[in-house]
């Protein structure tokens, strides 16, 4: 599913009051780091990324949120900033070190083409390579899952029946989906997670439901 399949969604309350995780990827990064395995590199947003962040803020300001968490990484904080300036979210949002992007080890800073030339692996195989330990000096997949999973478990414990926004990186969103849906990380490659996209997951005791995936407010008329 992509944003093209969706009308403007909103986060709706349900009679059983699910916990809603609103997963927000950062906006487009500066040109030097596009199509690059950035990982732990603390890059800025591009001018377009700042425009995307402003559209996100406008859409999110209409949503019933109870709490906001964010990665400490610069590109995420810059995406959060326009929304944080509305109301008092800049003071209430919590920065979580465990939401930082995965460390790509020896791939860090390399373009997608350079990884293919140097290691014989396409960029689209990175989840498989990370899971099997095929990226030298990268963060261990188990440790990555543990730190992201710990955030998910604690958030669900603290906020039952509430709507929680999580500003983070694309890899982190993929891991959160892997944890919540109990799907192996490499299979999450089938989910598109665009810059400045929103994915909403509802969690109930008997099921977890992706209510919408990869919605991009900046690509909608009137936003």
Q: Any overview of this molecule?
A:
The protein has 223 residues and is α/β, with parallel strands linked by helices. It has one domain (17-219): Rossmann fold, CATH 3.40.50. The chain has 7 helices and 6 strands, in the order βαβααβαααβαββ. The protein has helices spanning 47-60, 74-84, 89-92, 112-119, 126-132, 141-158, 170-181, and strands at 19-25, 67-70, 94-95, 163-168, 198-204, 207-215. Strands 3-2-4-1-5-6 form a 6-stranded mixed sheet. Helix 6 (141-158) packs across helix 7.
TL;DR of this structure?
By secondary structure, the chain is an alpha/beta fold. The chain has helices at 47-60, 74-84, 89-92, 112-119, 126-132, 141-158, 170-181; strands at residues 19-25, 67-70, 94-95, 163-168, 198-204, 207-215.
Features:
single chain, 223 residues, alpha/beta, Rossmann fold, 6-stranded mixed beta sheet, 7 helices, globular, disordered N terminus
């Amino acid at each position: 599913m992509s944003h093209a399949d969706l009308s403007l969604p909103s986060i709706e309350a349900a009679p059983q009051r699910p916990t809603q995780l609103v997963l927000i990827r950062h906006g487009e990064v500066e040109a030097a780091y596009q199509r690059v395995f950035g990982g732990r590199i603390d890059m800025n947003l591009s001018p377009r990324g700042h425009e995307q962040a402003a559209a996100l803020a406008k859409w999110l300001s209409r949503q019933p949120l109870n709490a906001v968490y964010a990665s400490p990484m610069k590109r995420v904080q810059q995406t959060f900033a326009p929304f944080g300036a509305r109301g008092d979210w800049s003071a209430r949002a919590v920065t979580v070190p465990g939401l930082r992007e995965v460390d790509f080890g020896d791939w860090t800073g390399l373009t997608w083409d350079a990884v293919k030339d140097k290691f014989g692996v396409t960029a689209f195989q990175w989840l498989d390579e990370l899971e099997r330990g095929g990226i030298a000096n990268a963060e261990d997949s188990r440790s990555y899952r543990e730190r992201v999973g710990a955030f998910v478990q604690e958030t669900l414990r603290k906020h039952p029946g509430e709507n929680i926004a999580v500003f983070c990186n694309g890899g982190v969103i993929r891991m959160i989906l892997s944890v919540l849906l109990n799907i192996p990380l490499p299979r999450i490659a089938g989910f598109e997670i665009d810059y400045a996209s929103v994915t909403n997951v509802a969690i109930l005791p008997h099921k977890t439901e992706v209510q919408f995936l990869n919605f991009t407010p900046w690509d909608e008329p009137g936003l």
